[in-house]
Amino acid sequence: MNTLMIRNTTDQWRDHLLPEKASKDTSSRLSLFVEWVDERGDHLHTPDLAAYRDYLMSDERVNRYGKPSPLSPSSAAAHIHTIRGQYRKLLKSNTVRDLLYAQTPLEADPATRKALVDEYITRLENTLDPDAVTVAVPTVQDDEDAKHLRLTQSQAATLVRTALNHPANTPLMRLRDAAMIALMLSTGIREAELIALNVDDLRQTYGGKLALRVRHGKGDKKRLVVYGDMSDCLVLVEKWLMSASIEDGAVFRGFYRGSKSVRSSRLTLRAVNKVLDRYPISIRGDLRTVNPHDLRRTYAYLWDAIGGDLIALQQNLGHADLKTTLHYIGRKDGDKRAAKRLFDIDMSAMPDVLL
Predict the structure, then answer these.
(1) pLDDT by residue (tens digit) across 71-129?
(2) In angstroms, rounded to a whole number, what is the distance separating the alpha carbons of residues 310 and 322?
(3) In what order do the strands lie in the sheet with 223-226?
(4) How far apart are CA 195 and CA 216, in angstroms?
(5) What is the rounded distance in angstroms from the CA atom of residue 300 to the CA atom of residue 179?
(6) Which of 13, 104, 186, 223 could form a disulfide with 233 if both were Cys (CB 3.0 to 4.6 A apart)?
(7) Which residues face 287 on adjacent strands?
(8) pLDDT by residue (tens digit) across 16-64?
(9) Spatial separation of the C-alpha atoms in residues 208 and 200, rounded to whole Å
């Protein structure tokens, strides 16, 4: 379409493309796209998603230090998916349709103006078609062990003990951090579920058994996680609550800067990750930090290692599909897939090489 027919409305499109209430990832991806369009001097109402895809995976994309930082195919695909989704929302908006009408030639008759808007929307929908802008994402049959950490029983105990004994932290901070880590390892909850916990969620019952209530899990699904033999994690949690004088509301909170005083507000997702970053442990000879999802995978891995019921594990984790739960446990067929002696390699014929 002749872009003169639909005049440049970049500023107005920018307002619609950057919603106020959006997740951090969504806002970041859309903001980066808008910046790229501005730098090219293009128009947001005629997006070139193919060119943006190529940019994301090229050395033209640089990090904050000015070094090339191309995205992986899967990350680029996620960016394009987010942008495509936001444009599709706009196409269903009467506000945007009114905006398009306002940008058609006012001297044209109503039928012509409608035809221009309809033609524009059709062309934009064609641009947004997944088949028009594809990103080849390689499938993965196997992940190496180092990619996703699953702690052993000994390593899990060491992580909690490291937090409890950390010399650089105040006793109150040590209690909070150890309680957080122990609760995640003992229940497999996500970090978002951890920071959403209230005091009255800690001691619920399910089938007469002590359980943790997750009020808003993934997909806004409520569930109960039965503690079983891991209810001793509550000793740490309740010691933290008593020491911090917390009787209701958020369980895990931050501290005022330079002070031992506890905030009334909840921890953020970023704060949970920063807590774990403080406690690296030795794994196969390397000093590694764990993330909250590593603790969730560890819960699944250790549950399976002691022969726990997989359906019960699936329910505790809040997975809709058992296949997802099995992915958290990890592959256990390394011994089966290890080749037996297939043939002998004659090492005596190997030459000496002098450098």
Answers:
(1) 888 888 889 999 998 888 888 888 778 888 887 888 888 888 888 888 888 888 888 88
(2) 8
(3) 204-206, 209-214, 223-226
(4) 11
(5) 19
(6) 186
(7) 282
(8) 788 777 777 888 898 899 889 888 888 777 788 889 999 999 988 887 7
(9) 17
Counts of helices then strands in the chain (DSSP H, E): 15, 7
SS3 letters for 114-172?
HHHHHHHHHHHHHHHCCCCCCCCCCCCCCCCHHHCCCCCHHHHHHHHHHHHCCCCCCHH
pTM tops 0.90: no
Sign of torsion over alpha carbons 251, 256, 257, 258: negative
Give the position of tokens 């002691």.
306
What is the H or E stretch that residue 243 is in? Answer: helix 233-243
CATH class of 146-332: mainly alpha
- Residue entry with tokens 């959403």: 196
CB 111 within 8 A of CB 24: no
Question: Cα angle at 269 between 263 and 272, to 5 degrees?
Answer: 70
